[in-house]
Amino acid sequence: SASSESSSFPTFPPGFYFGAATASYQIEGGHDEGGRGPSIWDTYCREPGRVANGATGDVACDHYHRYREDVALLRDLGVDSYRFSVAWPRIQPTGSGKANEEGLDFYDRLVDELLAAGIAPAATLYHWDLPQALEDLGGWRVRGTAERFAEYAALVVDRLGDRVTRWMTLNEPFCSAFVGYAIGRHAPGAREGRGALAAAHHLLVGHGLAVRALRAAGADEVGIVLNPDLLLPASGSEADLGAVRRAETLHNAVWLDPLFAGRYPEHEAETWGELADGSWRLDGDLEIIGAPLDFLGINYYRPITVRDVPLRDPDPATRTAVDIRVEETWRDDVRHTTMGWPVVPETFTRLLTELTERYPTVPPLVITENGSAEADEVAADGQVHDADRVDYLRDHLHALAAAIEAGVEVQGYYVWSLMDNFEWAFGYDKRFGIVRVDYDTLERLPKDSYRWYRDMIANHKTQEIS
Ligand code: GBH
After folding, report:
1. Which ranges form a coiled coil (predicted)?
2. What's residue 5's pLDDT?
3. Distance CA 145, CA 140 (A)
4. CA-CA distance, 85 to 176, in Å (whole number)?
5. pLDDT tens, residue by residue, 64-75
6. pLDDT for residue 32 is more than 50
7. 175 in ligand 1 pocket by Cβ < 6 Å?
8. CB of 171 closer than 6 A to ligand 1?
9. 48 preceded by cis ω (within 30°)?
């Protein structure tokens, strides 16, 4: 019945907002239209063996042409806000110089369409699609990219700043630095030590310089999106607790310490040894990086289990920055999504409470991504009955409500993702959407989870006014 259904909905404080999130390369397509230049993902996807089934984002969900239909889906969902990302190579095809007006025009139209539907646009400036021309000059390994990023931010806020009220500089710099330059599972596919550590630093400097540019243009709310990880020791042994400390440095402290504690990561010598000589740092960088923020975006999906292992590569000349005597595994005593990720909602509560305890100066949080990849077959009745995703979302929203109850300040929640899309190295094999995309016809089909989320939002709005 309706009442037993609504009693299963978590409750949130008045003013709490709900949204859905996407990213440019994962949904837009139109890769050679509107003057767009190539990004590192266009290059990476074309290298054999990098992406499952040789998939690319050339067409993706064709959102570049279908954005009106997608905004209508958001409107019917009843969300307060939509988080999208701006593709840097649409704005600056070679990563520097004056703006490509056609590129800005696309986001201009999208923003107007959102506002007409009563939805607040929330723009991420960098969700991993670096102009290839900048990678050719060294990418995030070099400081010049951080400076170019701030110039690009200024161009975007100049055009959209009168209508976009919420800005995010970087999405998950962990992935840009360590998955891109050390693990090699994301573009540009490098496997380095110092290069990856320098990239981490230059991403932070780029963030800080972009914050300055956004503030100078009068941007309302400015933040960054991190994916802090909840790290569980495989055992209570001293060795495994040491592994947790090193993984904590790699995943979390490398970002959170300079952003919110005015220092470089505490345990970097233990974690990286001689790789961590900090030669890429300049005086004054910590002030740039530590510019005050209005919110911290958090992407949360699952906890990681870590255990102590020997170094894979004893030679510091070739060792990568993720070779820190840690093996990462998944808990196996719970359900796993099709990503193989364990479903553990209570660690979401723990992550948020521990984070705000450890960093008392952290600004209010916004959950900028949370969701699950499921099998999502179309049933005989033509619908997608994604009960596992509904369970995932309900349980994680309850875990979020529990964190708020415990005193953590959280302003909003965006589900990942509005629709199935290009899941990076996994191509189109993994479906995270609350709307199904048929990749032959590009038709959109709302799943059961879309209707559940819509009803949950509607329930929240009724509570707010009663
Ligand atoms: C987010 O990353 C992204 O922001 C979003 O674009 C993505 O679609 C979504 O999650 C779902 O994955 O293969 O060992 O190198 C989530 C966290 C951490 C997931 C790094 C991919 C790669 C590990 N990401 N991980 S590895």
Report:
1. none
2. 59
3. 6
4. 15
5. 999 999 999 999
6. yes
7. yes
8. yes
9. no
Distance, CA of 97 to CA of 91 (rounded, Å): 10
Mean pLDDT of the chain: 97
Distance CA 89, CA 126 (A): 10
Q: 341 by DSSP, 3-state: which? A: coil
Predicted TM-score (pTM) of this structure: 0.98
pLDDT higher than threshold 50 for residue 80: yes
Measured CA to CA, the distance from residue 385 to residue 106 in angstroms comes to 34
Does the bond joining 3 to the residue before it have cis omega, within 30 degrees of 0? no
Per-residue DSSP letter, 415: E
Instruction: State the residue for tokens 């300079």.
Output: 258
Q: What is the pLDDT of residue 172?
A: 98
Catalytic residue among 113, 369, 374, 423: 369
Instruction: Report residue 6's pLDDT band, with 50, 70 and 90 as the boundaries.
Output: low
- What is the C-alpha to C-alpha distance for residues 387 and 446, in angstroms, rounded to an integer? 13
95-142: pLDDT as tens digits: 999 999 999 999 999 999 999 999 999 999 999 999 999 999 999 999
Structure tokens at 211: 């914050």
Kindly report the protein residue whose alpha carbon is nearest to atom 7 of ligand 1: 423
Contact between residue 404 and residue 57 where contact means Cβ atoms under 8 Å apart: no
Instruction: For residue 357, give every residue at least 6 positions away whose Cβ sits within 8 Å of its Cβ, in sequence order, or none.
Output: none
Contacts within 8 Å (CB) and 24+ apart, 134-140:
134/95, 134/96, 135/40, 135/43, 135/188, 139/40, 139/181, 139/188, 139/199, 140/176, 140/177, 140/180, 140/181, 140/198, 140/199, 140/202, 140/203, 140/206
Alpha-carbon separation of residue 300 from 57, 135, 256, 257 (angstroms) = 24, 28, 15, 19
Strands 17-21 and 410-416: parallel
- Coil, strand, or helix at residue 286? helix
Among protein residues, the one with the nearest Cα to ligand 1's atom 12 is 423
Please tell me the distance between residue 398's alpha carbon and the centre of ligand 1 in angstroms.
23
* In the chain, % of residues over pLDDT 90: 97
Cα-to-centroid distance, 426 and ligand 1 (Å): 10
pLDDT tens-digit profile of 218-268?
999 999 999 999 999 999 999 999 999 999 999 999 999 999 999 999 999
Decide if 172 is catalytic.
yes
- Residue whose CA is at the smallest distance from ligand 1 atom 11: 423
**Rounded to whole angstroms, how far apart are CA atoms 120 and 19?**
9
Q: How far apart (Å, rounded) are the C-alpha atoms in residues 306 and 232?
A: 6
For the CA of 184, the nearest atom of ligand 1: 15
Annotated catalytic residue 443: no
